[in-house]
């Protein structure tokens, strides 16, 4: 599938309608008009290539850090005291969503990533779903630094997640 190839880095962009016609010709020997591909794509509810690449979660240009273990020691060592967006996921368990599986169970944003992640791990953390995930599973975090508009970035990533998987991450009780 195209979005899996994009996520693995095999494809850097989604195929355009013209490229799809060339692939069909090369693979099956069938000549098909670009307009026909576009019409079929629209009837199937598939967005154009620009929209597919920019609404997939996570978008290729999301610039997330690498993954780190989600525990006190790792957060203190690896999470910055800066504004940004962060993601919590399991290290191995795939969570079933309406349109597929993902290891992500929470997306958040804050002006101090380290402080907020430590709050999730501490007694003052109010999201019981997050606590249940990290008590039962080995969990990871990663982040994306944002000097400004971190709330806007979180909202875009959250909406992309919903487009990709059909629903919000399991522990996001409130829409950003």
Summarize the structure in words.
By secondary structure, the protein is α+β, with helices and mostly antiparallel strands. It folds into two domains: 2-55, no CATH class; 60-165, 3-Layer(aba) Sandwich (GIY-YIG endonuclease). Helices cover 43% and strands 16% of the residues. The chain is built from eight helices and six strands. It has helices at 2-7, 17-28, 34-43, 49-55, 72-78, 113-121, 128-136, 150-165, and strands spanning 68-69, 84-90, 95-97, 100-102, 104-110, 139-145. The chain has a four-stranded antiparallel β-sheet. Strand 3 and strand 4 form a beta hairpin. Helix 2 (17-28) crosses helix 3 and helix 5 (72-78) packs antiparallel against helix 6. It is elongated.
Query: Which strand order spans the largest sheet, edge to edge or round the barrel?
Result: 1-6-2-5
Number of domains: 2
- Share of residues in helices: 40-55%
CATH architecture assignment name of the largest domain = 3-Layer(aba) Sandwich
Count of distinct strands: 6
Number of helices: 8
Order of H and E elements: HHHHEHEEEEHHEH
CATH superfamily of the largest domain: GIY-YIG endonuclease
pLDDT below 50 for ≥5 consecutive residues: which ranges?
Answer: none
Q: N- to C-terminal separation?
A: 30 Å
- Give a short account of the largest sheet: 4 strands, antiparallel
| CATH topology category name of the largest domain | GIY-YIG endonuclease
Percentage of residues in strands: 15-25%
Name of the top-level CATH class of the largest domain: Alpha Beta
Q: Structural class, please?
A: alpha+beta
Average predicted local confidence, pLDDT:
83
- What is the gyration radius calculated from CA atoms? 19 Å
Q: Which geometry do the CA atoms define?
A: elongated
């Amino acid at each position: 599938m195209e979005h899996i190839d994009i996520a693995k880095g095999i494809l850097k962009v989604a195929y355009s309608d013209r490229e799809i016609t060339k692939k069909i010709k090369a693979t099956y020997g069938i000549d098909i008009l670009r307009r026909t591909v576009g019409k079929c794509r629209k009837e199937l509810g598939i967005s154009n290539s620009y929209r597919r690449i920019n609404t997939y979660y996570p978008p290729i240009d999301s610039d997330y850090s690498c993954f780190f273990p989600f525990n006190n020691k790792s957060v203190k060592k690896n999470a910055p005291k800066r504004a940004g967006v962060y993601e919590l996921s399991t290290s191995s368990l795939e969570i079933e969503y309406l349109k597929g599986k993902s290891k992500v169970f929470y997306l958040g944003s804050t002006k101090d990533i380290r402080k907020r992640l430590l709050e999730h791990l501490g007694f003052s953390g109010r999201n019981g779903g997050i606590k249940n995930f990290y008590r039962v599973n080995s969990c990871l975090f990663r982040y994306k630094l944002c000097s400004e508009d971190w709330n806007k970035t979180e909202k875009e990533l959250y909406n992309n997640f919903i487009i990709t998987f059909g629903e919000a991450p399991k522990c996001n009780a409130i829409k950003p």
